[in-house]
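Fold it.
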Amino acid sequence: MRPDDANVAGNVHGGTILKMIEEAGVIISTRHCNSQNGEHCVAALARVERTDFLSPMCIGEVAHVSAEITYTSKHSVEVQVNVMSENILTGTKKLTNKATLWYVPLSLKNVDKVLEVPPVVYSRQEQEEEGRRRYEAQKMERMETKWRNGDIVQPVLNPEPNTVSYSQSSLIHLVGPSECTLHGFVHGGVTMKLMDEVAGIVAARHCKTNIVTASVDAINFHDKIRKGFVITISGRMTFTSNKSMEIEVLVDADPVLDNLQKRYRAASAFFTYVSLSQEGRPLPVPQLVPETEDEKRRFEEGKGRYLQMKAKRQGQAEPQP
């Protein structure tokens, strides 16, 4: 990890790690989907399940990224990715990230054609059944996120501190050839890195301290983004607990050279950040002040997600009988 991979405090950007995770996932998925004779394809990222940043990675450490295929349906691949950091001076290694990603194989001849996935061999029958349950759950959740596709982030003049409008941020980016796959659409890892940058700006504006990515709720990729499109990545604060901030990030794609195609929602996710002191200790977060009815509704929804995840963690921490 080099200085340009990290923030001013020396912590590696969450977006940089997400990009590495996605690169590992697309390599193993593409290899698997081309393992049998047939039409050649490239795996495209469809969804990233919740990702927790278990430990910060710092400048000078070496990242080890490993990927494993854990389930295949007829048209999708589930990949588990683990990230380890290594201090090359001491040899100490630690787990920093675990993520689950879903890919679909797209034909090289026709980008809109989804090919069938070769089956994977399971070591035990329960693995296939568990994978099928995860597949059905993520499929249902992806459909539930589509109601947000019409939601946009509007700028507000002279907003008050600690309000949603005060910290909301947007980034406009032109997709270049180097950021695209063989099909000519943007890599999922590139999009995730930009999403994390915007979320980080929102978090920093809100608390004005050093901030780091704590977790990312499911990232859903609703549609492909092609080379030459202009994308707008918008972020806004939705919820704050005592020591964490939830930020909704929306990605809209604008085919500026095509008058026949309209702007559309390409991706969406929730990022959670924490505020850190100069010594790396968690700091209290200024409480968000929702003003409109929509902001109050999003705050309550964020509170529900926070409490649900908190209860899940407490349940995992309890000793098993």
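The first strand starts at residue 41 and ends at 48.
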